[in-house]
Amino acid sequence: MNLPVITPEMLTFLQERHLASLTTMRKDGSPHVVPVGFSYDDESCTVRIITFPSSVKYKNALRGGRAVVSQVDGGRWLSLEGTVSGTTDADRVASAVQGYTARYQEPKERADRVAIEIHVDRIMGRA
Questions:
Q1: Residue-range definition of the domain harbouring residue 35
Q2: H or E element at residue 56
Q3: What is the pLDDT of residue 4?
Q4: How many domains is the chain built from?
Q5: Is 3 domain-assigned?
Q6: Can you give the pLDDT at residue 2?
Q7: Distance between CA 125 and CA 103 in Å, rounded?
């Protein structure tokens, strides 16, 4: 599998404190778009988003398919697209929390925290 090419400038942009929009697909095929904080793991080409089990975005992620997270700042923008999944696995949720903490701040404690993962296979944009 060819992994997407990401430049040092793109990585810097993905480490700055910016929110993004997450697009997942509803059961009826229509897009569900919400603002999110996210982290990006360059080694595994994975976007991670923390959330809670009853959120629409998590329910959409559990169905699989594709999703995209898009970050915009003036003329700089990146869209990271790939297959999406939801997880309750403690180690994977901990990785999502760690990424969120590094990029934004430590999230409030939540016993029912889950994570959304996008395994990125396409990157578009200009950073």
A1: 8-126
A2: helix 56-62
A3: 75
A4: 1
A5: no
A6: 63
A7: 20
Q: Is 34 helix (H, G, I), strand (E, B) or coil?
A: strand
1 belongs to a structural domain: no
For 80, phi and psi rounded to 5 degrees? Answer: -110, 120
Tokens 């699989």 label which residue?
64
Q: Answer whether 113's CB lies under 8 Å from 89's CB.
A: no
What is the torsion angle, in degrees rounded to the nearest 10, for the CA atoms of residue 9, residue 10, residue 15 and residue 17?
100
CB 13 within 8 A of CB 42: no
- Dihedral sign computed on CA atoms, order 24, 119, 80, 3: negative
Alpha helix ranges (H) inside the chain:
8-15, 56-62, 90-103
Asked if 19 and 83 count as a contact pair (C-beta separation under 8 A), the reply is no
Q: For residue 19, what is the domain's CATH number?
A: 2.30.110.10
The low-confidence residues of the chain, meaning pLDDT below 70, are 1-3
Instruction: Answer whether residue 111 is part of any domain.
Output: yes
